[in-house]
Write a structure and sequence with these properties.
Structural class: alpha/beta
Number of strands: 22
GO molecular function, one term: phosphoenolpyruvate-protein phosphotransferase activity
Enzyme class: transferase
Family: Belongs to the PEP-utilizing enzyme family.
Radius of gyration: 31 Å
Subcellular location: Cytoplasm
InterPro entries: GAF, GAF-like_dom_sf, PEP-util_enz_mobile_dom, PEP-utilizing_PTS_enzyme, PEP_util_C, Phosphohistidine_dom_sf, PTS_EI-like, PTS_EIN
Length: 755
């Protein structure tokens, strides 16, 4: 390196020695800038740290006036240093004072220095500060020198991120690396969770960044890259994806990134500056992430996640760490933070230790959200780049009511939320006081209010809430948390426990609704271009009749001497219902033949969630004993909007007149045939939506346990004839509106309804 004494490897070794010295944070920084200046043959070396107020403070310097340390502060939109921080890109100039962004600070004495090289201090793509070297001569810094300074900035990033500098700062001027963050996202599951961050896919912490053997590090890097490429090739050769389709195109793009010479070359160059293979991967990915975070193109932002994943895979190869989260180390008050995750992954955790869930993606009606609600876990989604802004163990507050997340909250915020939790507990006590009050509207109309459930942990909620029964028991959750396919006796035991807990209350069991994003860990996943519209639920059951028969047999035996209510999900045609019902009759015959006890009565119904059934209601209601409306899927299919896709999940409102007309069509046709219908989707779990459902004719609703109290409190105060008189004319108006939500909210406010 031109003009350097010993090169970056010598500098990194000396920095490692300084890092190990038992000195104050200021002394450590002062020694570091002296070392960098000497190594770079620079007359000035300065460290600027980004503060919580968004300004940059001079924390250490060699060459500038020492009295300017902690006194020189500039905005992030000010000067060359501010430009480096804002753009997260190096700036190299032979005549800095001629640059339009140059900002002269007389207290520093920098007017005699002309050449300028500044690099951002980055961690996980986030800017923590700026490292600068300057010289009097009009000189151009080489690419090698820029690379060396960026490598050195990695060491400074760890010092800043550790919080070591916080004690040096005045209140309100602490380093931004550990600053409290207040983020706003989408509320997914009600509740308030106070705890500490657990990363679902933990970042690999690189503990050794300075290399001792460069050829050896290059060999390790090349070996890890080859292993990564081979693993992607294996995925592409799998017969499940060996055809055209969007999923294959994604994997092809993934392979393209893994073979990108520029990406690999930058990591090799980083190793040559003195970094270990792990340090090189982290350096290059942090730089890349910083650039992509500042892009507005959604496609390019999405590719950032691909590169993050590739980098993490490389780090796992290099460190020998297995993929996945460390569930065994879960603290008592865990808040899971993830880009996204499957319902099965959430169920794999010890649920008694989870206080909250924070997602970069997530949608209000996704299956993951449904499971979080069922478990009573406060959840917030749409938290962009949250994974890159937290560290494992950070204090965090999740407000699943307002959609807010507080990371490293100050004491006053934490105390306010402790009070909020107490207030919420008191409100829950008021709901508990309504347990034995019949759910009857203000005008005297009875409403059956049931619970949605799917796990044994849900069963105590029946007695706690005083629910009419279980309107939907999702049997697939037992299969999703098991390590192997549950045997008939295991299923039998669960179903009996559910019926025992319900006592005389009715329970509606839904047969396996797997497929899409609900994957069983012991079944081979089938790659599909549109899994929500693919081989799932009753389609899978009819194609694998042995699977469906074994479950129905367990359900029939569990209900010996009792009533069994059974529904089939994702039915698209009456013929599918007939075939499924025939399996029930065959299993009843089998049990009779072999002398087994039988249920006292078997009622068989269907989930109304595919729009095609709306045009077969006469044929359907002439066959079924009852029906349940799965509003989550029905609404997503009506609007062709994937409820698991954050970009479109909330584009359409289920309170739009078109959606409410479809729901009213169902309840009106059921009344003609005298068949009971329950709406068991998440739509019923929100008081305002429940108001609309009751107004259009629904008298049976099934809600999540956390929503039972709020929905019941609203119904008790509801004047149903007034609500119906208000809503029905709105459904027939010629001028279609996007949603009736504003009108319904105004009605509720005027009527004094608790929402």
């Amino acid at each position: 390196m031109r003009g350097a004494l010993g090169g970056p490897r010598v500098l990194l070794r000396r920095l490692r020695e300084v890092m190990a010295e038992p000195v104050s944070a200021q002394d450590r920084l002062d020694k570091i800038v002296v070392l960098i200046a000497a190594n770079m043959v620079a007359e000035v070396c300065s460290v600027y740290v980004l503060r919580v107020d968004g300004t940059l403070e001079l924390y250490a310097t060699e060459g500038l006036n020492r009295t300017a340390v902690h006194l020189t502060v500039m905005r992030i939109d000010e000067g060359l240093v501010g430009t480096v921080a804002r753009e997260a890109e190096p700036i190299s100039l032979s005549n800095a004072q001629a640059h339009p962004a140059f900002s002269y600070r007389p207290e520093t004495g920098e007017e005699i220095y002309h050449s300028f090289l500044g690099v951002p201090i980055l961690r996980a793509g986030n800017t923590l500060g700026v490292l600068v070297v300057q010289n009097r001569a009009h000189r151009s810094y080489t690419e090698e020198e820029i690379e060396a300074l960026q490598t050195t900035a990695m060491v400074l990033a760890e010092i800043i991120a550790s919080g070591e500098l916080t004690a040096m700062a005045l209140p309100g001027a602490e380093p931004a690396a550990r600053r409290p963050l207040h983020l706003k996202g989408l509320a997914l599951s009600e509740g308030i969770g106070l705890g500490h961050v657990v990363l679902h896919e933990p970042r690999i912490e690189v503990t050794k960044v300075i290399a001792d053997d460069l050829p050896g590090e290059l060999k390790r890097l090349d070996g890890a890259v080859e292993t990564l490429r081979a693993s992607i090739d294996i995925m592409l050769e799998d017969e499940g994806v060996a055809r055209v389709g969007e999923h294959r195109e994604i994997l092809e793009a993934y392979r393209m990134f893994a073979h990108d010479r520029g990406w690999i070359g930058r990591m090799r160059e980083a190793v040559m500056t003195g970094l270990t293979a792990e340090g090189a991967v982290e350096r290059v990915q942090s730089d890349t992430r910083a650039r992509m975070l500042r892009m507005t193109d959604p496609y390019l932002r999405e590719r950032m996640h691909d590169l993050d994943d590739l980098a993490n895979r490389l780090l796992r190869q290099l460190t020998g760490r297995a993929a996945g989260s460390e569930h065994s180390k879960l603290p008592d008050n865990a808040v899971i933070v993830a880009r996204n995750m499957s319902p099965a992954a959430l169920l794999d955790y010890d649920r008694t230790r989870i206080r909250g869930l924070v997602l970069e993606e997530g949608a209000a009606t996704s299956h993951l959200t449904i499971v979080a609600r069922a478990l009573g876990i406060a959840a917030v989604g749409h938290m962009e780049n949250v994974v890159g802004q937290v560290d494992a163990g950070d204090a965090v507050i999740v407000d699943g009511v307002s959609g807010e997340v507080h990371i490293r909250p100050p004491a006053d915020v934490e105390n306010a939320y402790v009070d909020k939790v107490r207030f919420r507990a008191k409100r829950l006590e008021r709901y508990a006081a309504l347990r034995d009050v019949p759910t009857v509207t203000k005008d005297g109309t009875p409403i059956e209010l049931h619970l949605n459930a799917g796990l044994l942990v849900d069963l105590p909620h029946i007695a706690e809430t005083g629910a009419t029964g279980i309107g939907l028991f999702r049997t697939e959750l037992q299969f999703m948390i098991a390590s192997a396919f549950p045997r008939t006796n295991e299923q039998l035991k669960l179903y009996r426990s559910v019926l025992d807990a319900a006592g005389e209350r009715p329970v509606v069991f839904r047969t396996l609704d797997i497929g899409g994003d609900k994957v069983l860990p012991y079944m081979r996943a089938i790659e599909e271009e549109n899994p929500a519209l693919g081989w799932r639920a009753i389609r899978l059951g009819l194609d694998r009749p042995g699977l469906l028969r074994s479950q129905i047999r367990a359900l029939l035996r569990a209900a010996t001497g009792r009533e069994l209510r059974l529904i089939f999900p994702m039915v698209s045609a009456v013929e599918e219902y007939d075939r499924a019902h025939h399996i029930v009759e065959r299993e009843l015959t089998h049990l009779r033949r072999h002398g087994h006890g039988l249920p006292e009565r078997v009622l068989v119904g269907v989930m109304l969630e595919v729009p095609a059934l709306l045009f077969q209601l006469d044929q359907l209601f002439s066959r079924v004993d009852f029906a349940s409306v799965g509003s989550n899927d029905l609404v997503q299919f009506l609007y062709a909007a994937d409820r698991g896709n954050a970009r479109v999940a909330d584009r359409f409102d289920p309170l739009a007149p078109s959606a409410l007309r479809a729901l009213k069509l169902i309840i009106d046709k059921a009344a003609e045939y005298g068949k009971p219908v329950t709406l068991c989707g998440e739509l019923a779990s929100r008081p305002l939506e429940a108001l609309a459902l009751a107004a259009i004719g629904y008298r049976k609703l099934s809600v999540s346990p956390a929503s039972y109290g709020p929905v019941k409190a609203m119904l008790l105060e509801l004047d149903l004839p007034a609500a119906s008189a208000f809503v029905e004319p709105l459904l027939g108006t010629r001028g279609e509106v996007a949603s009736l939500r504003p009108q319904l909210a105004a009605f509720a406010e005027k009527a004094g309804l608790p929402l």
